[in-house]
Automatic annotation (TrEMBL):
Superkingdom of the organism of origin: Bacteria
Annotated protein name in UniProt: FAD-dependent oxidoreductase
InterPro entries on file: FAD-bd (IPR002938), FAD/NAD-bd_sf (IPR036188), FAD_aromatic-hydroxylase (IPR051704)
Lineage of producing organism: Bacteria, Bacillati, Actinomycetota, Actinomycetes, Pseudonocardiales
Single annotated GO MF: FAD binding
Gene3D superfamilies xref list: D-Amino Acid Oxidase, subunit A, domain 2, FAD/NAD(P)-binding domain
Boundaries of every FAD-binding domain copy: 6-314
A Pfam short name: FAD_binding_3
Coiled coil: none
């Protein structure tokens, strides 16, 4: 294997650092660029399910640390406007085998790559020009560099995808719902996790998933995703007049320092690669709050790294192998959206959703189905990843 191939990875959440971990171990020169000024801490809880996810974490030497930082996911109580229990969502359903906050997971990945990889925070890719021997990259900071390969691990609104493949509207499908996360502090529920619904609106708060979590149905909205104040105004407007304690949560929302609002959307691509550029994670097979996004990102990083190192850097064969293996596995991300399940648009649909958690047999069937999706890949062993350079 020819070492010291250079790769630029855009995105320092989960998929990007996971890929950086494997390629740096195999002797590659790895640079990760992230538009945020620093590592993003906190965030919602994410989970891993089944033997496939566990195997990749074990091969990374990460499983024990993830388990040590898990949220110990609690049951969540669905309540009515008077706070009375309507149903209980088991922690095993929402939290998989092990659940951890996204920021904690990103921190673990960063700790394992910071000394072997170059991180560029507060910058982003502004231009890509591919030549016969590599990709010339322009950064928003004004710098320019050449890399052998470029990986877009920069989310559903991927800048790399836009530059290399085309406008977002050609590859991203809006699914009719939005979600918001806000760090609002302890709402005084005594550690209980609750979820409250009105037609087309949901809010979940309390328990180990520290951010307040909003999901709502809406036509496509025009707002600045990089402006938290604009996002807060959207949530304030949508939830104005809601029952239970939503007005109190909206008051707290004004002071939330950590806030994020985005659409539920799907990335739909016929191919994950173009030339020397390849997409990973949500940029390629964006999930929709269905509970598979983080697992897909970590498994995808392992497969992409394995194919690249096995092919000794011959990117065309490696990218084809990566796509052939991941596309069937990532099909779960194209099956629908969690939006109608979390925020049904009518009271009758809310009652029907609640009934799922009141019937143990139906719930067990759903959990078996998610386990099957999570393990539906022939996970290769890549000696090229386990052999130290």
């Amino acid at each position: 294997m020819r070492n010291h191939k250079s790769v630029l990875i855009s995105g320092a959440s989960v998929a990007g650092p996971a890929l950086a971990f494997w390629l740096a171990r195999a002797g590659w020169s790895v640079t990760v660029v992230e538009k945020a000024p620093a590592l993003r801490r906190g965030g919602q809880a994410v989970d891993f399910k089944g033997a496939t996810h566990r195997t990749v974490l074990e091969r990374m030497g990460l499983l024990a640390d993830v388990q040590a930082r898990q949220t110990d996911g609690h049951d969540q109580t669905v309540i009515d406007a008077r706070g009375r229990s309507l149903a209980v969502i088991p922690g095993a359903f929402t939290g998989g085998d092990v659940e951890i906050r996204r920021g904690e997971l990103a921190g673990l990945l960063y700790e394992r790559t910071a000394s072997s990889c170059e991180y560029l925070f507060g910058d982003t890719i502004s231009g890509l020009a591919e030549g016969p021997g590599g990709v010339d990259v322009e950064f928003a900071s004004g710098a320019g560099r050449r890399f052998d390969l470029v990986v877009g691990a920069d989310g559903i609104h991927s800048q790399v995808r836009r530059l290399a493949f085309g406008p977002e509207e050609r590859f991203v499908r809006f699914l009719g719902h939005y979600y918001a996360l806000a760090e609002i502090g302890d709402p005084g529920l005594g550690g209980q996790a609750v979820m409250y619904n009105e037609p087309g609106r949901m809010v979940a708060v309390g328990g180990p998933k520290a951010p307040a979590f909003f999901v709502f149905a809406s036509p496509a909205l025009s707002y600045d995703r990089d402006d938290p104040a604009a996002g807060k105004q959207v949530v304030q407007r949508v939830y104005r007049g809601s029952g239970w304690r939503v007005a109190e949560l909206l008051d707290r929302l004004e002071q939330a320092e950590d806030f994020y609002l985005d659409s539920l959307s799907q990335a739909r691509l016929d191919t994950y690669h173009r030339g020397r550029v390849v997409l990973l994670g949500d940029a390629a097979y964006g999930n929709t709050l269905g509970g598979f996004g983080t697992g897909l990102a970590v498994v995808g990083a392992y497969v992409l790294a394995g194919e690249l190192t096995t092919a000794e850097g011959e990117h065309r064969a490696a990218f084809r192998g990566y796509q052939d293996r991941m596309r069937p596995y990532a099909a779960i991300a194209r099956q629908g959206s969690a939006g109608p399940f979390l925020a049904p648009k009518s009271r009758s649909r809310i009652r029907l959703r609640n009934a799922v958690f009141q019937r143990r047999l139906l719930l067990r069937l759903m959990m078996r189905m998610t386990d099957r999706y999570a393990t539906d890949i022939d996970l290769r062993g890549y000696p090229s990843l386990t052999a130290r350079p």
